[in-house]
Amino acid sequence: MLGNMMFQPLLISSMIEHAGRYHADTQVISKNTDTNMTITNWGEVHQNSKRFANALSALGLAHADRVATIAWNNHRHLESWYAISGSGLVCHTINPRLFPEQLVFIINDASDRVVLFDKTFTPLIKAVKPLLTKVEHFICLDAADDAIREAIPEVKFYDDLIAEQPATFDWPLLNENAASSLCYTSGTTGHPKGVLYSHRSTVLHSYGIIMPDSLNLSAREIMLPVVPMFHVNAWGTPYAAAMVGCTLVLPGPGLDGASLVSLIDTYKVSVALGVPTIWQGLIAAAMQSGSTLESLKRNVVGGSACPPSMLKTFKEQFNCETIHAWGMTETSPLGSANQIKAKHLGLSEEERFNLRLSQGRPPFGVDLRLTDAENGTHEIARDGVTTGNLQIKGSWILNNYFGKEESALTADGWFDTGDIATLDADGFLKISDRSKDLIKSGGEWISSVDLENMAMGHPEIAMAAVIAAEHPKWDERPILIAIKKPESQLTEEEVLEFYADKVAKWQIPDKVIFVDAIPLSGTGKMLKKDLREQFGRVLLES
Ligand code: AMP
Q: Transmembrane residues, as ranges (predicted)?
């Protein structure tokens, strides 16, 4: 017997309808590509999304056609997302920092028919255009501009297109399992792979992230997603924001610390999200300007491990609660978020601080387990000590990659994340490494993340990466690649001394190499593969 309740498919169009109807006057504040500010609201975003849906339909696109976006976080990009997915097309967000060959590969692989781009990326589009065999339309997300028309003669302009269209559009009643958006993994090994989200997975993920024990979002928040809309859909925040009707502050191209401090202070941002490298810039700029980031109640750190020193600085200097979260492109991304339970309320400050360092617990909607082998099915203890291969399953987790028939799951239906971690009985997850970044010294595993976190706790170290270097006796030994803070005279001996009372002697890095820069991926993660190529043999040479 079935239940007697109404069936309503979970669709992305319902989120923008809700925001447009009930939160029309709530602001969406956006920094444009030319750094001017546009202050609009959910009512206008709703209307423009319908105008642009009409414009897309006038281009003759068919259900499930792919529309690519190469753009910063701004209001036009936001409107286009709702127009594309809402009208049954697939929104393919692209990281502009990819190598041009990778960018061409994924646009062709996705068979994108339209490319939307911010004017910053005009030279990039001009350069790769001859190689984009399937793209029929290029739309600049801006007002008409002769310089852009000169570079790309067939270009159309977003503002012209929506000016011609009515703000009425009947969103199609799609199957909730229909594809809604597409995001490629960073592809540090091999070609990037596409993750094709559905309307259902996106709506459920949005419910997942707004919950109090996830990001605790409501109509009273002013949210700044610094994480780009091309990095796992800005972690789902543009959808969640419409669902709860909070104020959105979109930072455009200004991701440097000083620009972010100014946005936070001017628009009274209460919650902000980004990767650790972004927060490093913000902390340095706030300290320099003397800002206390007074309005910022919480920030969410994910994408790479949050160094303990960062959590401490946010709490002690800025009275800001840091939520450490974990996820990946294949998991929409939310897999866990760190919020304590009632039984932890009585803990001492220090105990609570230690608890908050981990990547947190899975929200309802996903489940985590550890196995003793990659892609294995044999589960191991959730004792907070034993490390294993982290696997995940749930309503917003990948089943198979775009264009690939075969399942990406283990024999019993879990997705192997490639991360090595511990879990405790309450579900608290601690990532110790990517499996490929772990260091195996004389048969014993050493976590590069732990050693990096310790180095980051040194007052004179600005950034630290620990990698495995080949070793004639131990196979691999850890070495530290570090950037010193300006003016620092720190020596290798002092750094090694700093480790002495923090880890077992055999885990202390064999060498410290000071550099001026550490290569970062398009999403701000340290490219350890490049560091291994550059420094992986230094111990053989000495
Ligand atoms: P991506 O799909 O590019 O977002 O990368 C996902 C990977 O980033 C995960 O598998 C982890 O290795 C890493 N990652 C994400 N969040 C965290 C975190 N909070 N701590 C440590 N690693 C993380």
A: none
